[in-house]
Amino acid sequence: MTKIALAIHGGCGVLPQDSMTAQEWAEARLDLGHALRAGYAVLKAGGRSIDAVEAAVVVMEDSPHFNAGHGAALNEHGLHELDASIMDGQTLEAGAISASRVIRNPIKAARVLMEDGRAVFLTGPAADTFAGEKGLAVEPQSYFTTPKRVEALQAMKAHAAAGTEATENEKHGTVGAVALDADGHLAAATSTGGYTNKPDGRVGDSPVIGAGTYARDGACAVSGTGKGEFFIRYVVGHEVAARVSYLGQDLETAAGGLINDDLAAHDIGAGLVAVDATGNISAPYNTPGMFRGWVTTEGKAFVATHEELYEITL
Ligand code: ASP
């Protein structure tokens, strides 16, 4: 039996602290707490890390506060196209779907695809058809839309017309989870609406195994958030695992190096959560904040949006 650990993120598209009311921040933290509890309950009962990360991500997909599922970003045509993936560090099995327009919980479709085993990655209408055939819930586009995302699209279009820079929050967000279970197995899951005003058909890093999501027993599990194009180029998830495995770096050095050195050099917002084979957790970000939370191997749980950590009871 190894110790259990869990970490989640709700994206690094977080505004400066004074730009939202205390109540709005508190509501987002509440949903982070719900997601942690859902994932931790699985681990605590001796369940598998793959089930824990799926459970945590479903809660954040259902929350309007994060850019995934209900509350996902709108693309340039005012449409939601959803990406998600999940990976089992024990077997290296994985499932990914991209550009879904109807799947209520894209992470569930990624998981069902992983179990199905005929493909690792399905995209667009084929992913939507697959989910429907497997009996997963599908929704009209209006289900995914929230007033905040409509405003963000308007703001992004205004920035594009005026040639001004958007805030991190207007741009993007994502949700993800990583876990270590009592049998020593790692898993990772990530789900996103991508970034606001993204080109039609654009696929980011979140469903790309090795980039936005990666898990390998003995190394670590990683879920990223930030400008996906760079996560794909740096193959961030796999790169963190490679630095841990082959350079012998500790998790904090490997994960922090990618976010604060490699990716920060491109002047892009980026963050990730990661857990290693002994339950160490790392959650670096280079934006004003990152929605995040974790449960340590000692069973202590924290949620945060900016620097300050809030301890919560599970
Ligand atoms: N990584 C996501 C994407 O590029 C967006 C984000 O996390 O901000 O699709």
What is the compact description of this entry?
The protein has 314 residues and is of the alpha+beta class. It has ten helices and 13 strands.
How would you describe the overall organization of this protein?
The protein has helices at residues 22-44, 49-62, 106-116, 124-133, 141-144, 147-162, 168-171, 228-234, 236-246, 251-263; strands spanning 5-9, 82-88, 94-100, 121-123, 175-180, 186-192, 213-216, 220-226, 270-276, 281-282, 292-295, 301-304, 310-312. The model has no long low-confidence stretch (mean pLDDT 95). It is of the alpha+beta class and 314 residues long. Strand 5 (175-180) and strand 6 (186-192) form a beta hairpin. The chain has a single domain, classed as Glutamine Phosphoribosylpyrophosphate, subunit 1, domain 1. The structure holds aspartic acid. The site of aspartic acid (ASP) has 16 residues, from strand 8.
Can you tell me the CATH architecture?
4-Layer Sandwich
CATH superfamily: (Glycosyl)asparaginase
Say what the CATH topology is.
Glutamine Phosphoribosylpyrophosphate, subunit 1, domain 1
Number of structural units classed as domains: 1
Write down the overall mean pLDDT: 95
Shape category: globular
Low-confidence stretches: none
Q: Compute the separation of the termini in Å.
A: 21 Å
Q: What's the helix count?
A: 10
Strand order of the largest sheet: 4-3-2-6-5-1-11-12-13
The total of beta strands comes to 13
The hetero compounds bound to this protein are: aspartic acid
Helix content: 25-40%
Rg: 17 Å
The helix/strand series, from N terminus to C terminus, equals: EHHEEHEHHHHEEEEHHHEEEEE
> Class by helix and strand content?
alpha+beta
CATH class: Alpha Beta
